Amino acid sequence: MQYMLLIIGDESRLNQTQDTPISPAIKAYVDALNKAGAWVGGERLRPSRATRRVMVREGKTRIIDGPYADTREQLGGYFLIEAPNDEAALDWAAKCPAAEYSTIEVRPVVPTPRT
Length: 115
Prior knowledge:
The protein contains two helices and six strands. The protein is α+β, with helices and mostly antiparallel strands. The protein is globular, with a radius of gyration of 16 Å.
């Protein structure tokens, strides 16, 4: 089963620049996920000020520039992993170095039927 590990935290503490290399701790975590066969994907996200929302209401498209909420906690990145059960996914979340300064939200992925 796939799980999304969402990294939510203070943007000032999240490394969200494209030019900054990934920390050695995160690289080691990704290597461990790969070695265990749990890695599916994951990326850092740009700061919330770089986001945009698209809504279509009554046939009209509306685009809104971010950020959208006056809060210090934002979505800063994610890992998509494969795990046999919730407990294994929670264990991977606890091992994520970002858990030391952020919250890791663990969410099971609902598979999309393929035709």
